[in-house]
Amino acid sequence: MADTSIEQARSLASRGQAVSAVALLEAAGSAGNAQAWMQLAVWRLAGAPLPRDLVAARTALRRAVEIGHVDGALMEIALSANGNGNTDAPDWSSAVALLDRAMGDPVAAAQRALLDEMALAADGVPLLLPKGEVLSAAPRIVHYPAFLTPRECAHVASVGAELLEPAQVIDPRTSRLVPHPIRTSDGGAIGPTREDLVIRALNLRIAAASGTRVEQGEPLTILRYSPGQEYRRHLDTIAGAQNQRIRTVLIYLNQGFGGGETQFPLLGLTIQPRGGDAIVFDTLVSDGAPDTRSLHAGAPVTAGAKWLATRWIRAAPIDPWTIRGA
């Protein structure tokens, strides 16, 4: 019956009957259906098919958690930490307190154990960073060895694994998703509702290493390259973007595969992937134009699978709910 109510609500919403859909979900939620409250929360957070309403979203999410929705509890923790769904600023301490309350859940316990291994300030910002090695002055490319621990790499890969799908891009002529013309990997972005406290702490680490605010980063994207897959030569900037990508952070999540080197052909620079290492490089010149010297490629993988985490950083804070495209 619960699933039927949600399916009916989704059908109503798809036909433009949002008011009726909300009424149906609220009735089901009041009758004890936690998933109905979760559906309302997701709609209100995403801004579709209902207008975005952070207060209503968090209210619905809290009701789902009170009924006992475990995934809802983890989502509430993520949103408390990153502020995407808060009426106030990100609140790391409240998120950690919520995590501690959920310690009966093995997923929450595993996340807490990883956090305990990190040297973090009270707001989740790293107290220490590995020392970087400058590989190129112009464009600036910095290599950070052991940027992530093996356990952190495994966590990022596990969170991203269920999000993987063939790389796609929006066709500007039709506005439809089509196969990516130069990237043949599988990928997925860890959006605000999945940004658990470990991922949040790592995004704060990325911000510190790149000298930017965490709000400037696009959702952390996980890429998996199987044999024969590659990312051909490209720039990370977006043509015509009002809020341009200024910096890229690449984190290698594993090693032991064949091929997959990161190549900067105009600089004669090739970087051999090593699990846990990170590369941070600039994508613009001083006047804000794309730096063509940052042209780079991910060489074809010849054996095994290459796992990579990428965070593209914009000039100004972004809305992670609407970041697709420019």
From TrEMBL:
Single GO MF annotation: oxidoreductase activity, acting on paired donors, with incorporation or reduction of molecular oxygen
Cofactors required: L-ascorbate
InterPro entries linked: Oxoglu/Fe-dep_dioxygenase_dom, P4HA-like, Pro_4_hyd_alph, Pro_4_hyd_alph_FE2OG_OXY, TPR-like_helical_dom_sf
Superkingdom of this protein's organism: Bacteria
Keywords: Dioxygenase, Endoplasmic reticulum, Glycoprotein, Iron, Metal-binding, Oxidoreductase, Vitamin C
UniProt key word Mitochondrion: no
Fe2OG dioxygenase domain segment(s): 216-315
Full protein name: Proline hydroxylase
Organism, scientific name: Sphingomonas gei
Lineage: Bacteria, Pseudomonadati, Pseudomonadota, Alphaproteobacteria, Sphingomonadales
